[in-house]
Design a protein that fits this description.
Length: 54
């Protein structure tokens, strides 16, 4: 897999996580801890995208 394809996949996963975070924040049954974990995963993806894009 090329770097460009890998970055594209990471961006896709980042977008999916963004949508999951938004949905979780609207859902009354979701705990702050679950939302924090999703945000942590999203941040790791963002950092990896930035690292590979340099």
């Amino acid at each position: 897999m090329s770097i460009e394809a890998h970055v594209a996949e990471l961006k896709r996963r980042h977008k999916v996580l963004s949508e999951e975070v938004e949905a979780a924040q609207r859902s009354p049954g979701t705990t702050d801890r679950q939302i924090a974990e999703l945000k942590k995963q999203k941040l790791k993806l963002k950092e990896e995208i930035e690292r590979l894009s340099q």
